[in-house]
Amino acid sequence: MRILHTADLHLKNPATPEGARRLGVLGEICRLARGYDALVIAGDLFDSAGEAQYLEGALRALFTELRPASVLIIPGNHDLLRGDNPFDGRYDFGQSGNVRLLASAPFEVFRLGPASFYGFPFRKASSTTELFRQAGGPAPGEIKIALLHGITADRAELAGWAFDPENAEEGGEAVIKDADLRSAGFSYAALGHIHRAASWSAGDCLASYPGSPESVRATESGQRTVNSVSFDPETGRAGLERVPLSTALSARREYVFVFPGDEAALPGRLDALLGANREGKLLSVVLEGIADLNRVREAAAAAKARWKGRLSAEPEFSLRLEDSQPRASDMIMYAFLRKTRDMAAAADTPERQDMVRRITALGWRSLTARSLDPEELLDR
Amino acid sequence: MKLLDIKTPAFGVLTGREFSFGGKSAVLFGHNEKGKTTFIDAVTAALYGPPRASSVFGREYYVRYGAAARALAAVEECGSRLETSSDAPAAPPDFPQELFRALLVIRAGEARIPSQEKRFIEVFTARVLGGGEIDIRRAMNELKKIYVSYERNSWHKRWLEKQDALFDASRLLQKAGEAEELAQRKLELADELESRRRAAEEMEAAAAGLNRQMLHIKLARLKDLQAQMAGALRQISELGRIDRSLYLRYSVAQSEITALAQKTAEKTALLAEIKRALGENTALKQDIDGKLSLLSAAGLRARLKNAESELSRKEEVWEKFSRKKRALFSLPALLSGLAGGLAAYAITRLAGLGPLAVGAATAGCALAFYAALLLADIPSPAVSEARKSLSAAAEEFARALEALGAGWRDASRAELREKLSAEDAAEIALAERHDVMETLISRAVSRAGEEEAALRQADGRMSALKSQLETELAAIGARDLGDLAARIEKLEYLHRSLDEIESQITVSADITRRSLETDLEKRIREYERRLEGAPPPDRLPPLNEVESAAVRAGQELKRLGAAREQLHREYNTATDRLSRLEGELGMSAAEVFARVKRTENAIAEIARWRRAAEETYQVIAEISRANDEMMKNCVENAAPVFTAMTGIYDALTLVKPTPFEPAAITVRHPKLGERPAEWLSSGARDSLWLSVRMAMAASGYKKPAFMILDEPFLALDSGRSAAALEAAAKFEKDGWQIILLTKDESLAGAAATRGLARIDL
Q: Which of B132, B619, B623 sits opposite A359 (nearest CB)?
């Protein structure tokens, strides 16, 4: 028994560049899924419910081609946003054939050979404690696989990442607990919702987020993958291998520190950065530091215009710098700027870059007698 | 960085000029309005481009030089030539405009700081560059507020708020966990309730089935009993001509007949017995009679006996008479004597002859006694009579004896008496027995007669009854008594059965006997109605099995009911607690979890800012220290220049680096010793600041570059100017390129002499 597990595709209308790209990634996933017993999509297939109408035909074509492999899908929080549930039967994605929409609360079971797939459709404010009530315990000889869309309560770093204001989700949360996975006797928990790939063991249960196949936000960096899961025929234990996706865009966030005097050179730097993005990453450029805000803004807009259409994905620019104008500098300020410039150059990790950004902002504000109140800094 | 040349194709009064320095020091000589300020602006524009039109500086610039102003420069930077112009400014990044303007352009009069001004660097910077002031102290304090927990500090407050929020959220999370557990428990209880309910349903269905079975059984039974009753009644009615009274009568008659029969039998037996006894007694009597006949005739014996007794008597009398004489002193005589005595006494006394009484008594007594004796001794006819009788008696005796026969003659009187008495006794006994027998026999005979009579009576009565019964039986149609008996038995049996059936019915149907049949019918209809006309199953288990099963079912139902109640209570308790918790929570467990995570993130964010603030503090503190260090060096480096400029003071000491103010510096007068800078005259103070200013330029910019001095020695007299120039030359020795701008002819000349190239504006 082998399954291919993915989630969080966030498909959109293929008429948009993002939509077309993501549909292409799904195509690659489906090609990879040939030869597997099942393709499992653990929620957020669509970016919102309204997108489903544009994708009905394409999905049906892609999924039915996978026969005799089954395609199992559960709805995620995005699938239910801003529209009617696309999995209630109004669309034909191939349900008459090999596609199963596991959308009835609290769960639907699909049996395939020795495996039982328990699909839990996303429900806001639910938790596995109540969802697993009727899922029973382990049965001998049965390989139980859970499809869940929610946040793991037991991985602090993942949960923290998920609740980061940048990664904020709409539509509410569902909580997944390791203890429940253990006691329900699942061999594998095919999870979705958190866009970062992660896997861990909860007792005998292997739980994994495959991560978004294509980065949806700039914080989703790293090679995009899908999970290839095989099950030992004797013990039923799951083994996981991450399969890289070649057509998918991962995101990269670049921090560009700008100091007074760098404004003139900024367009060149931005061009160099964007030009180096040949491998097609989803670029998010953050301009930090202290500089003439207007000039920096102009440079960013100009770079965006120059590169429009030349990259696989439109880059995002965000400005998080302190405005050096109107402001006169002096020795102390000069010394501070020199120091922070050195620090920025020496910052080799994202955490250190982040710290340097804060130090720059704090120093500038304190020396220029601007407000250091938490309202200013925390709520930006 | 050294200045190589400047070209000003379009720059105010210097339009079309070219200046070549080749990296060496120079003096630019020009009167007022010849372009000294313009030169500085041109250099600045060439290096850094024109100023922003929106600034104060920019507005002045555009007014003075116009938008088309253009200047070009060539500088030497790290051994290579760098072209720069106002269109394409290319000043090296480590030679920023701020630094250039702050340090390396020293203008006349700028160094004059009012004596009460405290913060030299800040104020100076503000004066020169027209911007804001930097208050390091304030900056550091503000930074400290972020990471040091003061009270009433907004960061600390925010920190505490978030900590409180996290605490509350964590508590809520606990509650949420509890709520989840309760919800879980509720679901479990619901399941249990459901299973109990189903079990109760099943049990009730089973109980209903059992009830139906019981009804079937009861119905069958009642119907059976009903049939039995009907059968019994029918049979009874068939036998019905036999009514109870006849039955009673027969019973009575039968018992009478039986009694009579018994009596007859008894009597017959008795009679037989009597007759047998009679026979025996008669035989016995005959035997006695026989025995009696053997005895001698009773008369003869009696005669003998009489004779003998007569004889004895007579003998006795005779004996008596012969004894009498012996009774002289017999008691009667004595007594008579006494009596006579007493009588005599009494008479005497009564007669009043008392003293004679005793004698009379004695006399009487003796008389009486004697009289008695005399009387006693009368030979009377009695004696002869006695004698006669005696002989008569003896004759009689002999005759009697003779009559009796031989056996008697030879016996003695005693033997005779014995024999007589024996025979008397025997005769008596026999006679007695004879009498007894006779009595018995006569009694027996009469008794037998009675018994026979009674027997006949009984027999007769029995026959009468029997014939009466037979008549009656014939009238009823019974063949005979036996038949009637059988019938009666059957009737009795039927009545008993009926009674039994009826009592069974009353028990089974739970009704009274009063209106048995109708109640029974009602009961049967009722059961049929309850069974809804369903046919009975093929096999019905025995009632006791069904009943005990029903009892068990009932017990089980009760048990289930109690369990369900208990579960309900628990469920309700859990529901109440859960709704209370949910009310306290106000949100779901997932939302609480989200809140906890967000709060944790917020706290982490505050922590990051705090760490950044601490590091920033260190950075700025370091900068402050470096600055202080620099000021110290400045002052040290300024000393010789100052000495040269003033020609008097020979030492300059920085007492404390901050705040950098007049009070922070002391000067040493050769005669007057250490004096604070405030003590200096205004001219000397100007020199002080100028020298410090130049030293600052050299210290502030680490490697030697070019310095533009614009009329720096304006306030000094010519002698001082020369000395100052001399001092400035010191910097040149350190590698600095000095560009001096002046309108002082002598200074220009002196500078040229010193080796500075002279350019006239």
A: B619
Residues A264 and A206 in one domain: no
From B529, B551, B572, give the residue that closes a domain.
Answer: B572
**How many beta carbons lie within 10 A of that of residue B273, not counting itself?**
13
Shared domain for A45 and A190, answered yes or no, is yes
Q: Give residue B702's pLDDT band: very low, low, confident or very high (50, 70, 90).
A: low
Residue A49 shares a structural domain with residue A160: yes
Cα-to-chain-centroid distance, residue B703 = 89
More confident residue, B76 or B628: B76
Total number of domains constituting chain A: 2
Domain that holds residue A279: 251-378
Residues B315 and B423 placed together within one structural domain of the fold? yes
d(CA B40, CA B106): 10
Residue ending a domain, choose from A196, A220, A244: A244
What is the average per-residue pLDDT within A302-320? 83
Select from A228, A244, A260 the last residue of a domain.
Answer: A244
Could you tell me which residues come within 8 angstroms of residue B515 by beta carbon, excluding any fewer than 6 positions away? none
User: In this structure, are A231 and A295 located in the same domain?
Assistant: no
The reply to whether ipTM tops 0.95 is: no
Contact by Cβ (8 Å): A177, A154: yes
The structure tokens listed for B677 are: 């800078």
Instruction: Compute and round to an integer the Cα radius of gyration of chain A.
Output: 24
Please indicate, yes or no, whether residues B301 and B368 belong to a single structural domain of this protein.
yes
What is the pLDDT of chain B when averaged over all its residues?
A: 80
B574 within 8 A of B186, measured Cβ to Cβ: yes
* B544 shares a domain with B508: yes
Pair (A215, A136) in one structural domain = yes
What are the tens digits of pLDDT across the range A75-125? 999 998 888 888 888 888 888 888 999 998 889 999 998 899 999 999 887
Give residue B365's domain range.
Answer: 267-459
B132 interaction partners in chain A (CB closer than 8 Å): 327-328, 368-369
Instruction: Write the pLDDT tens digit of every residue in B310-329.
Output: 888 888 877 877 776 555 55
Question: How many domains does chain B divide into?
Answer: 3
- Is there a single domain that holds both residue B322 and residue B370? yes
Contact B184 A367 (CB under 8 A): no
Q: Does residue A23 carry a pLDDT above 80? A: yes
Domain annotation covers residue B567: yes
**Is residue B309 included in any domain, yes or no?**
yes
Taking the CA of residue B609 and the nearest CA in chain A, the distance in Å comes to 7
pLDDT at B368 exceeding the cut of 60: yes
B125 with A331: Cβ contact below 8 A: yes
Same domain, residue pair B450 and B303: yes
Q: What is the mean pLDDT of chain A?
A: 86
* C-alpha span between B716 and B748 (Å, rounded): 14
Task: Check residue A221 and report its DSSP letter.
Answer: B
Confidence tier at B128 by pLDDT (50, 70, 90): very low
Residue B579 host element (H or E): helix B543-585
Tell whether A346 is within 8 A of chain B (Cβ). no
DSSP conformational letter for B655: S
Peptide bond into A68 cis (omega under 30): yes
Residue A336: both structure tokens together: 């501070």
Residue B292, CA distances (Å) to B288, B365, B384 in order? 6, 62, 41
Which residue in B103, B593, B615 is closest to A173 by CB distance?
B593
- State whether A234 and A261 are in the same domain: no
Q: Is the pLDDT of residue B700 over 70?
A: no
The DSSP secondary structure of B169-198, one letter per residue, reads HHHHHHHHHHHHHHHHHHHHHHHHHHHHHH
